[in-house]
């Protein structure tokens, strides 16, 4: 909860991060003359990075460092310092921040390590530092971070100990691993990738990913946001904020994220690393899905995708054409396109005819378009003109293999020309390494994304399409159904008074009834003749189920009897059941039985709710039965969900085909499941006392014929 | 069939490929003085490639080319030409090969295009060329290929028009795409990868992948074989030959293959369950699995894996350790290791103690071992010494991120030293691009495989483990069960005489009985009272099923009745059924009914067989029920299978967990399923007239309690 509170304070107070990203005057506290010291590297980077404002080294002994005049103490600093970069030993950090606060320094970056990541005393120091930050409403980045870079030429700040200042670009990178930052910057240097902002989050004692996202949301220099995350401080707020960014109607910005610690063992490594709490991977999948964030697996993939998003328009549709001078790579690219959810565009007959006029007869005029091994730039240019002019085509992957006649650089220039003329998406792959590299350089300089292999281009285009589907999605709201809240409160209140954690089937069904779920008709009966009479009322056949706060698994103790056909049968079953149950559990308190109509046959689904200690209520959906358990074919979302979110849950399980109807079967009543999921979402949001719900099964009938809850289990938080 | 025959001739005759791979004298037929001509490029490549033998250009007009004396006609060539490289127009190729044959030229490479790939006349020319090759028992590579390279210093032949001669190495590359060869050579040049042989197969008119594999099998210079394939000429022979190579007990050579055209759907024999689930890609998966070939998706992956296999020992077990100077990449690598089937080694407490002595206290001593951001080469070397000395560790991934203190080149040298001392597998990832590149160069020069990202190292190590499991697998044989072949022949003969394609349920069950399958007890009855009497004999309850050669789907026409409890019920059901069936299908010939015992409850599986027009009999295995169809959770193998193959089929479906028993359930009788799969394999191999078999379901009981065929469907090839 403390992390949530922190975020809350930070978000609600809306402390500006302007002083940290766009400072005019910087103090380097712990600046050093020793060239191997971080306190020297930072200062040197600020100078060599071309910082446009003033730099004030602070060092108790030195008078000048790198020609800059030093202050001997924080108190000696001039007024109007926007940012203090702190590189003093961890034990001195809380006091340093206190002095900064007193001096009116607007913000700080704590580079120093030796905090929460080492535990014990470090954790205490970090807490103290965070409290000081809060006291002075002074945003603090870190501790234990690489620092921050803003390439905006008006600022040009490299407040990091990175070896490299990247070139300006429209990609922002936010990382929870400082060392990864170093690798990324070196990688980007080689691939000539530019950045707008580069942020190493460190231990997130004060500033966290939410603060940074809020800043980047309105940063005109940033078009794409990349994140390396090991945890999130607040799932719900992340979803809320990221949706605003990724789904903005005017200028949506894609967010691509690596969430490390996917596997159990990875998560273990994560906790030993930063000591941060790891949620289960499914929860993160749910959060990213709800936030419109594209989750990727590796650094390579994140950059492959980022360059596509940074430099190219998002294609209007998933119909892609391939233009290649080699058959084999064309086939491989086709395979990859299909694998990544793209569709091979049908080249129109008009285009095919146009291609016939400009390509040799042995070329391939359908998709993939093969301009043949001896193609030179003119043939590529002709073919691209035809293909890009085809209204069936919204994206093109251009493949080149270096053959005897291939004029690689001229072809690169031709592609650049085509790219400048078209609004369609062009990605390229010049296969090879040495001979093709001058061509690749031309493409990269002109912002035509290049991939070493066509498969990677297909993957990037596939991600663009996934994002496209997100930004054009219909916007729906969180629905609020009228409910009988008084009834629910009274059931929960009574249970809490009796210290009853597990509700009886009867209580659970009553709560669901109050929340408007469609239920199989039932009546409660506390003695045998009453059960018979209630059964007459419901109509035969009926089932009876034991109602007891002490029975966890009704079936295991003989607490369920099905298909009873007369009042006499019901009464006999009542008696047999109560004595059977008492034989299993002599101390069980038995309230009576639920007399329930026998349901019609239908498709069985499971709806569930659970509370994650870190992320709050999480909804689950899956099909009933053994197979689903084996295949782990379930999906999760953080509550609350919107109507579309509920629909996506249903669509995202593999067994969705069964609900849609296979082999001529009619579809199930999907709308009713969507409604039930939303009702469960409302219950999760409204009832903090409810910690777990299992609706198992909800039997779903055919389209427009509804669904009915057959059994349910509710556990209270006590 | 013709492709199979070709391969057969070639394999059985065992024509040596020595003249083509290791020639002493070469004729370049169609050599040219024009520098832009392929006929010039080939000659120039032979010369500049340092060919050790004699080169004879053949050109009707020129007297010398590049200082070499020309022959004006093939007939003018000296005796003893091992290899003719042919670059004449396609129309002249058949005659050229004829002249070569007459002259006693031992082998040929046809570079020229314009054959089968353009259809029509080209196809005819190709057939003619192939026939000439056969007539003179002269192995011919191509046509329509890039040529061939052998880097063996004793030969040093670049008989290709590639721009590049690769450096010698222990990797052979065989490609069905010439253009891909060009890209690969350029890529390998950049990554400094060496090759033993480089073969562009072209149209495979004569020499195909089988001939090449047979040569590479015994090539002492080749340790790893890479293949790019678009099809296989013969699945069964490929399996047989590749198993010999990949599974050799003395010197196994891994084969890595890209099969392009994954997503293209093969021709479907859609009537059977097995046929409808079987795409061409599933068949290739089956072939590669049976051949011990590692299938990979991309060129990048194939080289990532190849360098690991080429330079490092295969690890003894899947227990891997990670040594890193950065936490984040360590977590990502851990994730990847688990994803690729590795196991994070438990660092022993002795090793942890040793690590404590050489690493700073803030380091991480368990796996991943974190030597911390300021680590220099001494710390890496100490940590690696400890970790490699731990008997729990069989492979190590070393990660480096370029931080302020990192002495990259010294660390690379330290790793090289460790690599020379240990027999354990070491893979590395120096993350970044520019700063790390001198270090990467050192690693590559000393054959320590390097990967741009740790995930790729994990993927390569995972592939080594998969291959390890293949080479240490228990070797089993194809079992032959005693069968009643006379009975089977008579049923098939009778059906063929009546032109009956679909066997009746009765006939199908009789065939399975003859093959020794365990069947649910049944009796045939042709009239109602007989059915009643047979039911008495079997014991109630029983099921009856219509027996008719004209009914394709018994259930759909009311041809199945279950759970009949007396003779009277059986007789009534008989009459109702026959009239119901006739109402649906008035012209149906009804033989009678099968009276069958009602089976016990068990787990239902499906066994199937289908004949692929190209690859012959293919076996299928999956679990019964709707879910399996939705999840496509089935597996295929080419018949015949060995006992281990049958076991692997069962283990490879995702629903295997259900057969093993979930939630405390006892395991199913897996041995009986394995036996049934082998019986089906024998049936598929023995009975060429049977084109499809569906055993659906085979009900499997608990361990040692057997299984019973409940229903089956057999279709004949007519």
What would your notes on this structure say?
The structure is a homodimer of 718-residue chains. In chain A, a hairpin with a 6-residue loop joins strand 27 (690-700) and strand 28 (707-709). Chain A is built from 25 helices and 29 strands. The first copy, chain A, has four domains: 2-309, Rossmann fold; 312-471, Succinyl-CoA synthetase domains (Rossmann fold, 3-Layer(aba) Sandwich), CATH 3.40.50; 521-598, ATP-grasp fold, A domain (Dna Ligase, domain 1, 2-Layer Sandwich); 603-716, D-amino Acid Aminotransferase, Chain A, domain 1, CATH 3.30.470.20. Chain A is flat. Helix content of chain A is 40%, strand content 20%. The two termini of chain A are 18 Å apart. Chain A has a seven-stranded mixed β-sheet, sandwiched between helices. The interface between A and B is large, with 88 and 88 residues.
Question: What topology does this entry show?
Answer:
2 copies of one chain form a homodimer.
Chain A lengths: L1 H12 L4 H4 L3 E5 L8 H11 L5 E5 L5 E2 L2 E2 L13 E4 L6 H11 L3 E4 L10 H15 L4 E2 L5 E4 L6 E4 L7 E8 L2 H14 L3 E6 L8 H9 L6 E6 L5 H12 L8 E5 L4 H11 L6 H11 L2 E3 L2 H13 L7 E6 L2 H13 L3 E2 L4 H10 L10 E2 L6 H12 L6 E6 L7 H14 L3 E6 L6 H9 L8 H18 L13 H13 L7 H10 L7 E4 L2 H11 L3 E6 L12 E5 L2 H18 L7 E6 L5 E10 L3 E8 L2 H6 L2 E5 L4 H10 L3 H5 L9 H17 L3 E11 L6 E3 L2 E5 L2
Parallel strand pairs in A: 1-2, 1-5, 5-6, 6-7, 10-11, 10-12, 12-13, 13-14, 15-16, 15-17, 15-18, 18-19
Antiparallel strand pairs in A: 3-4, 8-9, 8-11, 20-23, 21-22, 21-23, 24-25, 24-27, 25-26, 27-28, 27-29
Helix pairs in contact in A: 4-5, 7-8, 8-10, 11-17, 12-17, 13-14, 14-15, 15-16, 18-19, 20-21, 23-25
């Amino acid at each position: 909860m403390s992390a949530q509170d922190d975020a809350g304070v930070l978000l609600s107070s809306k402390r500006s991060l302007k002083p940290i990203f766009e400072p005019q005057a910087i103090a380097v506290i712990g600046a050093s003359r020793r060239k191997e010291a971080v306190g020297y590297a930072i200062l040197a980077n600020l100078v060599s990075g071309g910082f446009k404002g003033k730099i004030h080294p602070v060092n108790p002994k030195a008078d000048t460092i790198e020609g800059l005049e030093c202050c001997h103490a924080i108190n000696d600093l001039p007024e109007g310092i926007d940012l203090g970069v702190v590189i003093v030993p961890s034990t001195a950090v809380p006091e340093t921040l206190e002095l900064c606060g007193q001096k009116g320094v607007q913000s700080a970056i704590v580079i120093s390590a030796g905090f929460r990541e080492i535990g014990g005393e470090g954790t205490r120091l970090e807490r103290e530092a965070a409290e000081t930050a809060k006291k002075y409403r002074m945003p603090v980045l870190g501790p234990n971070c690489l620092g921050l870079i803003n390439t905006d030429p008006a600022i040009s700040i490299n407040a990091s100990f990175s070896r490299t200042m990247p070139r300006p670009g429209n990609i922002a990178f936010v990382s929870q691993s400082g060392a990864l930052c170093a690798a990324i910057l070196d990688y980007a240097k080689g691939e000539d990738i530019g950045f707008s902002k580069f942020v190493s989050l460190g231990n997130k004692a004060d500033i966290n990913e939410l603060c940074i996202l809020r800043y980047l949301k309105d940063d005109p220099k940033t078009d794409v946001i990349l994140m390396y995350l090991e945890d999130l401080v607040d799932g719900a707020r992340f979803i809320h904020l990221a949706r605003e960014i990724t789904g903005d109607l005017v200028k949506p910005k894609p967010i691509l994220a690596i969430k490390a610690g996917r596997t159990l063992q990875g998560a273990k490594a994560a906790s030993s690393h930063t000591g941060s709490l790891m949620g289960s991977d499914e929860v993160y999948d749910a959060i990213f899905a709800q936030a419109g964030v594209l989750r990727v697996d590796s650094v390579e993939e994140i950059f492959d995708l980022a360059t596509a998003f940074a430099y190219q328009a998002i294609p209007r549709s998933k119909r892609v054409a391939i233009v290649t001078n080699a058959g084999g790579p064309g086939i491989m690219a086709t395979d990859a396109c299909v694998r990544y959810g793209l569709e091979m565009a049908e080249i129109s007959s008009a285009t095919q005819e146009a291609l016939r006029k400009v390509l040799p007869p042995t070329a391939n005029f359908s998709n993939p378009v093969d301009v043949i091994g001896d193609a030179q730039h003119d043939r590529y240019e002709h073919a691209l003109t035809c293909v890009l002019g085809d209204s069936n085509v919204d994206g093109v992957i251009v493949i080149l293999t270096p053959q005897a006649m291939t004029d690689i650089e001229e072809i690169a220039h031709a592609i650049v020309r085509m790219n400048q003329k078209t609004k369609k998406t062009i990605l390229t792959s010049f296969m090879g390494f040495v001979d093709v590299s001058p061509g690749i350089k031309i493409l990269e300089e002109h912002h035509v994304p290049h991939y070493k292999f066509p498969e990677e281009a297909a993957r990037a285009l596939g991600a663009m399409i996934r994002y496209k589907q997100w930004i054009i999605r219909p916007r729906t709201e969180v629905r609020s159904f009228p409910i009988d809240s008084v009834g629910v409160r009274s059931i929960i209140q009574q249970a809490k008074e009796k210290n009853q954690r597990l509700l009886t089937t009867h209580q659970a069904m009553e709560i669901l009834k109050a929340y408007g779920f469609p239920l199989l008709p039932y009546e409660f009966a506390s003695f045998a003749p009453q059960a018979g009479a209630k059964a007459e009322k419901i109509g035969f056949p009926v089932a009876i189920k034991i109602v007891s706060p002490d029975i966890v698994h009704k079936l295991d103790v003989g607490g369920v009897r099905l298909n009873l056909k007369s009042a006499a049968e019901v009464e006999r079953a009542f008696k047999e059941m109560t004595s059977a149950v008492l034989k299993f559990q002599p101390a069980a308190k038995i309230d009576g039985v639920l007399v329930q109509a026998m349901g019609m046959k239908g498709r069985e689904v499971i709806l569930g709710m659970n509370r994650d200690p870190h992320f709050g209520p999480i909804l689950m959906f899956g099909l009933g039965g053994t197979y689903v358990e084996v295949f782990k074919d379930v999906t999760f979302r953080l509550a609350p969900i919107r109507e579309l979110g509920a629909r996506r849950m249903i669509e995202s399980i593999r067994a969705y085909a069964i609900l849609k109807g296979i082999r001529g079967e009619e579809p199930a009543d999907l709308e009713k499941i969507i409604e039930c999921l939303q009702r469960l979402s409302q219950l999760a949001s409204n009832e903090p006392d409810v910690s777990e719900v299992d609706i198992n099964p909800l039997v779903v009938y055919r389209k427009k014929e509804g669904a009915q809850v057959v059994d349910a289990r509710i556990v209270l938080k006590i």
